[in-house]
Structure formats: structure tokens, C-alpha cells
């Protein structure tokens, strides 16, 4: 049995009118079915079905991790030792203005709240500045901003600071939310021109953010319906990666949370919310040089209609501590999610992260077992591989132990994820696909939905059997052999939006699959993952990022590891080529 069998997806790259025609042919009953079966055959879908049928696997649909008694006791001890105190946690990091060196840093959550407290500026002044910035841009980053609502929110926050009675640790801090995450008072479009869901009630994570005083700036752009990895959007426009030393070249931000990552990277907001069904928080965060956290499945209690068994909501920030703050606020159980799935989680804590912050001299990773799947790590571009190996050596120098691992049948696992997420998305979008809205969809979206429509019940059930295999394997790895898995975040830097894709987009399954190479296992099994920059490409100045994944519910360990990794960037975070200095003149 080959230990590494992951291959690039096989399908021709199509763009322009050829893609438009192809997307329409796929809806023709007989001809479309023949073409889709050819794509399946080229990508060895039957091999996945055969593997699922070869053992005694039972299907598993939702990746809910059921804790053993000793695991429950471990989390209870962690909570008791380091109880979560948001206000205390918010004081544990220096603001940018307290830093001694002159290297570039983004403004942090603490910078905003400190400046409000000392009277340097107010939430109203910041909101006014952000509104000016948004109104000066096209809609490729921020697609909706209710100016009146934002102005009123900011005025109320300003009054609270004057009275010395703030709501919470995010009072007056501007936050953007991905278009598919419900925000009261906004119209959820999922990055389309044909969906217009008027939202009356905040989703659970947005409600939590508001309870801490966050200013919801508006909705961020995304890849149409979240079914792509580049961030291309034919209706609102495709955001440009803030990094890259040649601003004449349009580098993708990655997707699908494209606007969220771009807004954080270029400094519009210090925090944005993304959703991740196949890397959609982590891919754009990686390509835009941000910190992106995909929590454990249902750690943040929200039901997502598209990709319901693989989607996770989490924060995109420009530093690890802000990611920890946002995670601590949004995480937790709800009484209203599907079948109370979020009730299976342990109490929210940041044990390993907080323990490290309380002892700034403790920078050792001694005893930490890092799993490395070498063949998988090596399947990346030379610049990415070199940066990843440098990071691994840094961890070794800090005392970590490298444990060789394998993720067997990764090819089958990736196909199973693809079958699952495209089936779920087609189910959510069927009425649009079969209506006149079909003509308003981008051709790439049509192609992906046609693929989702094509799966048989045998193929879908086989995919869930493969998920059962993957869950069993990863739970055993974390229970008995390792603490974390380290890999590149993406195998390459941000790809270029080619001129021939400007009018109709592109269907490039090989590129899509490559960007998701290190992502899908985490979505399919529900384990948490975090990405952060570790280098910049010598030629393009584009970010190169690392991913760390851990056992279910161990976000505290991920944040601790990411915090320990900041020294890997010897010269600190690089300033993006496109940057707005929101607090700079106050």
C-alpha cells in the first residue's frame, strides 16, 4: 500500500466563453452526465468507493468527537487551573504603541481599546475613517456597510467610554463578517446577485461578538456561494491580494473568505469572521499573511446550510493574541444548533496558551510531539518547502520531538470530502441551479454544482465510510502518538488571476485541489487548525504560511504553538503593499 497517494485533480482548465459553454452543456441530461462520468473516472472515484467497501466501515456523517472519560477529566482540570477571564486575557499583550522596536505591526484589538480609553480617538472617529475607506474602494472587499447603523453603534460605544462603562473587551473594535454568516439587519447574498436573505437575528458567533461591544462594520466579499478557493467573484469583483511587490499583477487572495482576509491584511479591521468548509478561512489567511483559526467542528455553535458537515466558523486576525480573544468570545455551546451538537464540547479554555502568557520566560517546547508526514510536506513548491523545514528545525531547537506519521488513503479522503461538500452545496442551491438564477451564476459555480448534483447514493455513502476511517485514524494518532501535526498551509504562494479569466472566471480543479492540499483532512474530521506566516517569497514578497493541527477541542495548544512560532519570522511581519493606516493619524 502506498503511503502517499494524493494526486492533482484531473480536469482541463477552462475560462472565457469555453467555460461558459461547458457549464451549460453539463446541465444537458445525457451529454452532461457522460462528461461528468468521464471526470469521475479520470479522478478514480470508483477506487474510493472500492476502498470504502473493502472493510467493515460504518458511515459517519457529522465529525463529532466523543470524549473518553480521561479526556473529559483533562479538560476539566485545565479549566479549573486556568479559568477563562476575557478581561484579564485582553490585558496580556502589549499594544503596538508599547513595542520598543520599529518594525511594522498591524494595529491590534488592544491598540483600538487603549486609544479609546486614553482619549486619543473615539469609536465614532474610527467608524468615520473606515466608512471613508470603504466608500473610496470598489465592492471587492466589503460588499455591504450600513452606514447609519454603524454610526449609531459607534456613537453608543463612544458614550460608554466617556462614562467609563464599556460593554466588553471588543467595545468599539471594528469587525467584518463573511457574507454567508448571518448578521441582523443585513442581506445575506453569499457573494451572489440572486440570493437576498434578509437577516433578522444574529448568528451565535456574531451575537457573542456584539455582547462584547464589537462594531459590526458590514459584510465581507467571498467566492460565490463559497464553492471555490481563489476568491474570484464575477458580481462584486475579485479582491486583490494586499501583498506582492508588483501591483500591476493581480494575485488572488484565496477563498472563499476572500474579503475577510483582504480586509484584515490591508488594515481595514483588526478582526474578521470567516467560514471554512475546505480551507476557506485558512487558505486566504495563508495567502494574505494573516492568522486564521478553524476551530473544532461545532466549537463555535452555528449551522451552515452549505457544507453543513464540514463547515466551521472562526476568526481571521493579524496576530495570534487577537485570534485567541476572538476564539474565546465565539466558542461555546448553544441551545439552538442542530440536534444540540455543540453540547458535546468541553468547557471553553485556553490552558496552554494562557499558561505560557503568564510566564513569558517559558519558551520551551520540550516534550511536545510533532507529527510530520514527510511525503505530504514535500509535495509543495521549493520556497514553501524550505520555509517549512526551517520552521520544523526551529521547533526542534525549542525541544520538540519530531514523530514521523502517515495519513493513509489521503487520496480517497480528499475525494470523499469533495463528494460531501459539493453534494451539500448542491442541496442548498438546487432551487437556484434549476431556476432562472442559473444564468446569473458564474460558470465556475455552475460547473461545481453540476459535479455536486452528479454523485450517486453509493458514492455519497462511501464518502461517509471514508470519513469514519479518517476519524478513527486521526483520533488514534492524537491519543497515542502525537500532540500536533505540522505542514505547509498551502503548497504555493498566491496564484495570479490571469487575463483570460477576468470575464467569466476559470474552472481549474487542479489549482483548487492544490490550494486545499493540506486543508481537507481537518474539515472532514473536524480537528482544529491554525495558519500563520513564516516567510515571504524572495521574488514576489508574497507570504508563505504554516499550518498546525491538533486533537479535537485543543485550540489552546494551537494558539500556544502559533505564539511560540513568532520568532520564525526573523524580521517580523512585512508591511503589505496595499495598506490603510486606520489609527495612524490619531
Explained architecture:
The chain is of the alpha/beta class and 586 residues long. The chain contains 21 helices and 15 strands. A hairpin with a 6-residue loop joins β14 and β15. α1 runs parallel beside α17. The protein is globular. The mean pLDDT is 95.
Oligomer: single chain
Q: Whole-number radius of gyration?
A: 22 Å
Uncertain segments are none
Given helix and strand content, the structural type is alpha/beta
Helix content: 40-55%
How many helices does DSSP assign?
Answer: 21
Tertiary shape: globular
Mean pLDDT: 95
Count of β-strands: 15
Strand order of the largest sheet: 2-6-3-7-9-8-14-15-12-10-11
N→C terminal distance: 62 Å
The fraction of residues assigned to DSSP E strands is 5-15%
Largest sheet: 11 strands, mixed
SSE layout and pairing:
Layout: E1 14-15, H1 16-25, H2 29-42, H3 45-54, H4 69-81, H5 86-90, H6 109-117, H7 123-135, E2 142-144, H8 147-163, E3 174-178, E4 187-188, E5 197-198, H9 204-211, E6 215-220, H10 258-265, E7 271-276, H11 282-287, E8 291-294, E9 312-317, H12 320-330, H13 351-357, E10 369-372, H14 374-378, H15 382-397, E11 401-404, H16 410-433, H17 443-454, H18 457-480, E12 484-488, E13 506-507, H19 509-515, H20 520-525, E14 529-536, E15 543-550, H21 555-564
Parallel strand pairs: 3-6, 3-7, 10-11, 10-12
Antiparallel strand pairs: 1-13, 2-6, 4-5, 7-9, 8-9, 8-14, 12-15, 14-15
Helix pairs in contact: 1-17, 3-16, 3-18, 7-8, 12-21, 13-21, 16-17, 16-18
Amino acid at each position: 500500500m502506498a503511503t502517499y497517494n494524493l494526486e492533482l485533480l484531473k480536469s482541463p482548465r477552462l475560462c472565457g466563453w469555453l467555460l461558459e459553454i461547458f457549464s451549460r452543456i453539463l446541465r444537458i441530461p445525457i451529454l452532461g452526465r457522460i462528461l461528468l462520468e468521464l471526470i469521475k473516472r479520470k479522478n478514480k472515484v470508483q477506487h474510493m468507493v472500492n476502498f470504502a467497501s473493502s472493510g467493515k466501515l460504518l458511515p459517519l456523517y457529522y465529525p463529532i468527537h466523543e470524549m473518553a472519560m480521561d479526556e473529559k477529566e483533562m479538560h476539566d482540570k485545565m479549566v479549573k487551573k486556568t479559568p477563562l477571564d476575557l478581561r484579564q486575557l485582553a490585558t496580556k499583550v502589549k499594544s503596538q504603541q508599547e513595542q520598543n522596536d520599529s518594525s511594522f505591526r498591524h494595529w491590534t484589538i488592544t491598540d483600538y481599546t487603549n486609544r479609546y480609553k486614553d482619549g486619543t480617538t473615539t469609536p465614532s472617529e474610527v467608524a468615520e475613517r473606515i466608512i471613508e475607506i470603504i466608500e473610496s474602494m470598489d465592492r471587492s472587499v466589503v460588499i455591504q456597510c450600513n452606514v447609519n447603523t454603524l454610526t449609531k453603534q459607534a456613537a453608543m460605544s463612544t458614550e460608554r467610554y466617556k462614562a467609563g462603562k464599556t460593554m466588553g473587551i471588543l467595545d468599539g473594535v471594528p469587525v467584518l463578517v463573511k457574507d454567508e454568516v448571518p448578521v441582523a439587519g443585513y442581506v445575506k447574498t453569499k457573494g451572489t446577485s440572486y440570493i437576498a436573505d434578509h437577516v433578522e437575528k444574529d448568528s451565535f458567533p456574531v451575537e457573542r461578538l456584539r455582547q462584547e461591544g464589537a462594531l459590526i462594520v458590514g459584510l465581507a466579499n467571498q467566492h460565490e456561494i463559497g464553492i471555490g478557493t481563489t476568491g474570484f467573484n464575477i458580481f462584486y469583483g475579485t479582491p486583490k491580494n494586499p501583498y506582492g511587490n508588483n501591483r500591476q499583477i493581480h494575485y488572488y487572495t484565496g477563498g472563499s473568505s476572500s474579503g475577510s482576509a483582504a480586509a484584515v491584511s490591508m488594515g481595514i479591521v483588526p478582526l474578521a469572521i470567516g467560514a471554512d468548509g475546505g480551507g476557506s478561512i485558512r487558505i486566504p489567511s495563508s495567502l494574505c499573511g494573516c492568522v486564521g483559526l478553524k476551530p473544532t467542528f461545532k466549537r463555535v455553535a452555528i449551522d451552515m446550510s452549505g457544507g453543513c458537515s464540514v463547515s466551521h466558523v472562526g476568526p481571521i486576525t493579524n496576530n495570534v493574541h487577537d485570534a485567541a480573544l476572538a476564539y474565546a468570545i465565539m466558542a461555546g455551546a448553544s441551545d439552538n444548533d442542530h440536534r444540540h451538537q455543540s453540547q458535546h464540547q468541553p468547557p471553553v479554555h485556553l490552558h496552554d496558551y494562557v499558561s505560557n502568557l503568564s510566564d513569558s520566560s517559558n519558551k520551551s517546547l520540550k516534550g511536545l510531539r510533532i507529527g510530520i508526514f514527510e511525503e505530504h510536506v514535500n509535495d509543495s513548491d521549493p520556497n514553501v518547502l524550505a520555509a517549512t523545514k526551517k520552521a520544523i528545525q526551529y521547533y526542534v531547537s525549542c525541544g520538540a520531538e519530531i514523530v514521523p506519521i502517515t495519513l493513509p488513503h489521503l487520496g480517497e479522503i480528499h475525494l470523499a470530502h469533495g463528494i460531501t461538500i459539493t453534494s451539500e452545496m448542491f442541496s442548498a442551491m438546487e432551487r437556484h441551479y434549476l431556476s432562472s438564477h442559473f444564468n446569473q451564476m458564474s460558470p465556475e459555480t455552475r460547473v461545481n454544482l453540476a459535479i455536486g448534483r452528479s454523485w450517486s447514493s453509493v458514492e455519497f455513502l462511501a464518502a461517509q465510510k471514508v470519513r469514519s476511517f479518517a476519524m478513527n485514524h486521526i483520533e488514534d494518532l492524537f491519543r497515542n502518538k502525537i500532540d500536533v501535526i505540522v505542514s505547509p498551509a498551502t503548497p504555493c504562494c498566491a496564484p495570479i488571476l490571469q487575463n483570460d479569466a477576468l470575464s467569466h472566471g476559470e474552472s481549474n480543479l487542479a489549482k483548487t485541489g492544490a490550494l486545499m492540499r493540506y486543508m481537507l483532512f481537518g474539515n472532514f474530521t473536524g480537528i482544529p487548525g491554525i495558519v500563520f506566516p513564516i516567510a515571504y517569497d524572495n521574488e514576489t514578497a508574497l507570504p508563505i504560511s504554516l499550518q498546525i493541527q491538533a486533537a479535537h477541542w485543543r485550540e489552546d495548544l494551537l494558539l500556544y504553538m502559533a505564539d511560540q512560532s513568532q520568532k520564525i519570522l526573523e524580521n517580523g511581519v512585512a508591511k503589505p503593499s496595499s495598506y490603510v493606516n486606520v489609527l495612524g493619524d490619531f
